[in-house]
Amino acid sequence: MATRIIVSYDDTDNDRDALALGQLLATGGAELSLAYVRHAQQSDSAREALEEREAESLLEHGAQLLGNPDVPRHVIVHASTGDGLRELALREQADLVVFGSDYRTAPGAVAPGVSAQRLLNGGPAAVAVAPADFRSQLPHRVARINILEDGDPAATETARSLAASLGAETTTDEDDHGDVLVLGSTAGGLPGRVTLSASVGYELETATVPVLAVPVGKPVRFGARTYVDA
Prior knowledge:
Elements (H helix, E strand, L loop, with lengths): L3 E5 L4 H13 L5 E8 L6 H22 L6 E5 L3 H12 L3 E4 L14 H7 L5 E4 L14 E5 L5 H13 L2 E3 L8 E5 L13 H8 L5 E4 L16
Parallel strand pairs: 1-2, 1-4, 2-3, 4-5, 6-7, 6-8, 8-9
Antiparallel strand pairs: 5-9
């Protein structure tokens, strides 16, 4: 089964960064989908219909930016964006949820917002966070994927799979995050959940490249890049 990637998308600049990262990670043929979380269902039917149309319009614009009008889209109603995405990830058996950085983040820096933090603390799927203004750094060329393992080999398996998908190499350089940083959960964490130690969390917060945090014992397997003869 193809890797399933959900992009949290609300049509803001930072979520366009998430869209760009999701598209990059799906290079090997992953199934990409977009999700928007509404925070309340309106009692007035006309108002409810309007908000639903607005949500669908947001996701339609994201699909247009992807150049894929048929990309699956999910509109969820939940008081918490993070919890709504957690439930969606479980329901869709998603391998990865992609976020942009917090809207106040300086260009080039990585800063998970509240919703991303919810999934970074015990979430059931891997979590990727794009640096602010990642959308403007086209084309995205990934030559080195750096691994920060914390006792659980799922991070290394994920990084190697992603490297094969993107035509990159893996490294374990403690002084250079490379072009993508893959973070491992602590080996003592709950199986299948993202559990980052304080030291690994610090690397996430100081990163200037896309970050991908992997659940305990649950590597993400990306499709290998295919080449077509000219």
